[in-house]
Amino acid sequence: MNITSKITAAFAFSLLSLGLAAAEEPSSTSLPKATIDGTGDGWRSLGEADFQNVNCYDDTWTFKNGGIQCTGQPVGVMRSKKEFTNFELVLEWKHLKSAGNSGCFVWTIPAEVDKLTKPGLPAGGIEVQILDHGYKDAYKKSTGKEGDWFSTNGDIFAVGKSKLKPFPPLSPNGLRSFPSKELSKGVGEWNHYYVRAINGEVRLWVNGEEVSGGKDAVPATGYLCLESEGSPIEFRNIRIRELP
User: Fold this and answer.
1) Which H helix or E strand runs over 6?
2) 3-state class (DSSP) for residue 164
3) Measured distance CA(241)–CA(244) in Å, rounded
4) Domains, the chain, ordered by start
5) Can you give the pLDDT at residue 36?
6) 168 near 177, Cβ under 8 Å?
7) Which segments of the chain have a pLDDT < 70?
8) Which end of the chain is less crowded, N or C, counting CB atoms within 10 A of the terminal residue's CB?
9) How many CB atoms lie within 10 A of CB 53?
10) Cα dihedral sign for 204, 55, 78, 107?
11) What pTM does this model have?
């Protein structure tokens, strides 16, 4: 075989090898989302027996057909009866009205919850925000300002006396972890949250993909709270797995 033939053969073999490698390696766009449904060893459901009303009306929270309905009135919370430290949490939520506002608090400071004798929110905890996309327009209409300090796709931030170092991308003031992707569905559609809270670090997956989080939370133990904040919302399939 002459030199030209050898080069041609080697080039053809290289192309064939590259083609085989490409065929064997899956495309990143075809990989399945890592949706965790809260089943398996250690997971358990959280229902009516696991929560208690803090500062809402008697009919603000209704447990029905395996889910939770919240009227949004008044502003307040329902907390877990137990404190949690290291855990994984899954829940599904659906806003029933445009511009709906709610949230899930983790590591909520018990002493701050105990102070809530009137409508209001606890001054201590890490909030995993649950905000409808319509809130942006509603905020601009009511204030005349752009709502650039929040997003509607799963912000994470410390409230009150709690502390957290949020992961980037950050809000303009640096206090919130903004989601890296916009994955939340709109009003009337179910959304899936997977929250992992371990050793002071909290991370959020929205509809199967990780989007936001933070580390060095202080304190890193406390109640789990669901928030009533002016608009009707439903929750379902709330499950938790406690970790060492």
Assistant:
1) helix 3-24
2) strand
3) 10
4) 33-242 (2.60.120.560)
5) 86
6) yes
7) 1-35
8) C
9) 15
10) positive
11) 0.85
